[in-house]
Amino acid sequence: MRRALAEARLAYEADEVPVGALVLDRSGTVIGTGHNDRERTADPTGHAEIVAMRQAAAALGTWRLSGCTLVVTLEPCTMCAGASVQARVDRIVYGAIDLKAGAVGSLWDVVRDRRLNHRPEVFAGVLADECAALLTEFFTHRRVG
Which of this chain's residues are annotated to bind Zn(2+) (predicted)? Predict the structure, then answer.
């Protein structure tokens, strides 16, 4: 999670919403990293999770991220939760809960929907206070500035 927080800080420095993510392979090696880059790229799919999963898929040479772990500083939204299911990610580890758009247990629970063919294991609240503090700081400065 600390490595994901470092990615989130890169987003913060680029005036992007500070969310960072990484993908670990079966052995725990980082094979994909990402942070929000929607503003820079003008890409609505430029969420940290999507960026990291694309990089991981390229590293593995397949869209199937079976055996992989997605680590992200903020609970994934519906798009990112759905993408993690489609990519067959084995587990999702996230920090701060997102009560406004979270889709991994708070507002929605896309990844545990029994109607889907794949359901990743979820670990929530890892370094949650630190992850949330970075987001709070970002939005506080944005309102003041």
Answer: 47, 77, 80
Residues flagged as binding site for Zn(2+): 47, 77, 80
Catalytic residue among 49, 75, 130, 137: 49
Identify any residues that bridge with 74 across adjacent strands, giving them in sequence order.
96
Q: Specify whether 49 is catalytic.
A: yes
Q: Which CATH code is given to the segment(s) 1-135?
A: 3.40.140.10
pLDDT digits (tens, 9 = 90+) for 78-131: 999 999 999 999 999 999 999 999 999 999 999 999 999 999 999 999 999 999
Provide the token pair at 95. Answer: 């920090």
> What is the Cα–Cα distance from 97 to 73, expressed in whole angstroms?
9
Of the candidates 138, 135, 28, the residue with the CA atom closest to the CA atom of residue 73: 135
Q: Which residues define the annotated binding site?
A: 47, 77, 80
Three-state SS string over 62-87 comes to CCCCCCCEEEEEECCCHHHHHHHHHC
